[in-house]
Amino acid sequence: MSARPHLPDRAPRMKGAPTALEGLLVVDFTRVVAGPACTQTLADFGAEVIKIENPEGGDDTRHYEHADLAGESAAFVSLNRNKRGIALDLTKPKARDVARELIARADVVVENFSSGVMKKYGLDYASVAPINPRLVYCSISAYGRQGPFSSRPGFDPITQAESGFMSLNGFPDGPPVRTGPPAVDMMTGMSACNTILLALLARNRLVRGQHVEVALFDIAVAMTQFYGMAYLMTGVNPSRQGNSPNGSPSVGVYHASDAPFYIACANDRLYRRLVIDVLGRPDLSSGEFSDRRSRSANKEKLRAILAGIFVQGQREDWMTKMKAANIPVGYLRTVEEAFNSPEVRERHRVCQIPHPAAGFVPNIESPLNLGMTPVIDPVAAPLLGQHTEEVLRKTLGYDDAQIAALAEAGVFGMVATTVGVS
Description:
Strand order of the largest sheet: 5-2-1-6-7-8
Strand content: 5-15%
Number of helices: 17
Largest sheet: 6 strands, parallel
Helix content: 25-40%
Number of strands: 13
Distance between the termini: 45 Å
Mean pLDDT: 94
Order of helices and strands: EHEEEHEHEHHEHHEHHEEHHHHEHHEEHH
Low-confidence stretches: 417-422
C-alpha cells in the first residue's frame, strides 16, 4: 500500500477579512452527498451551519468504506467541514420541539429526506413557514417533491441511468458507464447552493422567504447539455464517443512510448498548430483532414496516423513541444499523481487540519475564490453529536436543567446522554 502523502498545515486566511455569509444561520437536515455538499459551501463562506443527525449512527456517509481516520470516513470528512453537529432523535416530540426552535431562528433550512418525512415530523415548509416567514427552505430529492414520481427513492447512479447521462459515458463498443465520483450528486449540491443564494437575494426585495427545490433527475437531464439539445434539434440519438467528443480524432488520449497524455485540439487553428508546428506534418492539414468535419469523417485513419507518430517519442518531449506551441495538453494522471502534482501543491489545493479524534485529517480546499470575502479557516467535520450542548446553550439559550431533562427524555439517543449532567 502506498504511504499516506505528506500534507502541509493550512495557512490562515487574511486577518480581519469579512465572510460572505456572516450572520446566516442554516439548519441542515441533510445526509449522504448532495445536501451536505450544498451546506458545506455555505459553511465555507461563513454561514453558521448546524447539522442535525440521528443519534443512531448519524449520516450514512460516516460508515462509507473508502477510508477512515480514527473511525471518521473519507466521505463524511470531505462533505461536512465547518459545520456544528448535534444529535436529535426526531421520533421524540421534545426533539422535534428543539428542531422547531432552531428553524424559528434560521435563515435557511436544507433537507433531503424521503418524501413525506419532514411533514410527518411537522417540520415541512408549510408547517414551519408561519413561525418564520423569512425562511428559505430548500428540499433536495431524486424526482422532486410534487408529481407522480415524488415518492420514488433514487440515488446518483439511478438518475445517471434514467436521464440518458450515463448513455453518453464510455466507449462506442462498450456499455454505458457511470462516472466514478458522484457527478450528479455534486452538481445537485452546487445547484442547491445557488438556488438558496438566489432565494436569499430575492428575500431582500420581497421581504419573505420561499420554498425552493432541486431534484437529482432534473440536474442529470440538464447535464446532457448540448448532446440533449442536439437530439431535440435532429431526432438523432447521440452515442458514446469515449475520450473524444463527437469522435474528434484530435481530441483524446494518446500514448507516447512511455506514458499516456490527453490533447484537445478541437478547432482548426489548434489542429494546424499541432500537425505543422509540433509534428512537422503539413500534409495532415489539407485534403481529407482540412477541417473538423473532414477529420471526423476520416477519424479512424487520422487517429491511426497520430497514434503512430506519438508512440515514437517520450511523453515529456511531446508535452514540452505542445506547451511551447500553446496547445492544450495534459498528463493522464492517477489520483495519486494528481494530488502530488505541482498544479495541486503550488495552488495549495490540499492541506491538513486539526481533528478532535484523528489529530489531523486531510482537507481539499474549496474551489471557489472570493477576493474580499475568502473561505473561513476550515474546521474538520464534527463527531456525531459533538456540538449538541454548545448549540443548545449558545443558540437556543438552554440551561443545565433543560439540557438534562432532554437527555433524560432520550432526545439525544445514546450519543449525548451525559450532556448537561456533571
